[in-house]
């Protein structure tokens, strides 16, 4: 009985930290980030610093996993994506950029 209780507690101590982690979105080849991936503080807009931080984190994660960095050389600059020039990216601005960027990547893959 004591051994079973100890074993159960050990499993819980191991499993709880894993279960508490947010579910990761599968990042397969060709997957594109979402607005939430960039909006670090969740305020509905992306500052240039949030954009740079999220992009750097994504590049680092992909490099660590040994993944290809396709499309990185064609990646847009924050100021190019901020089409209204207000210093923040809206969901619409980021979605439009990601759509264009994805189309460019698919076109290059077809060559």
TrEMBL record:
Keywords: Signal
Coiled-coil segments on the chain, per record: none
Signal peptide: 1-20
Domain of life according to the entry: Bacteria
One Pfam family from the record: EF-hand_5
Region (Disordered): 62-89
EF-hand domain segment(s): 35-61, 78-104
Protein name per the record: EF-hand domain-containing protein
């Amino acid at each position: 009985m004591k051994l079973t209780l100890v074993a159960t507690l050990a499993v819980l101590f191991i499993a709880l930290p894993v279960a508490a982690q947010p579910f990761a979105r599968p990042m397969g080849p060709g997957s594109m980030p979402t607005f939430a991936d960039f909006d670090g503080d969740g305020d509905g807009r992306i500052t240039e610093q949030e954009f740079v931080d999220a992009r750097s984190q994504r590049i680092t994660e992909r490099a660590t996993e040994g993944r290809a960095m396709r499309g990185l050389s064609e990646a847009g600059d924050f100021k190019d994506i901020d089409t209204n020039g207000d210093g923040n990216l809206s969901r619409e601005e980021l979605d439009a950029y990601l759509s264009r960027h994805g189309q460019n990547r698919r076109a290059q893959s077809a060559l």
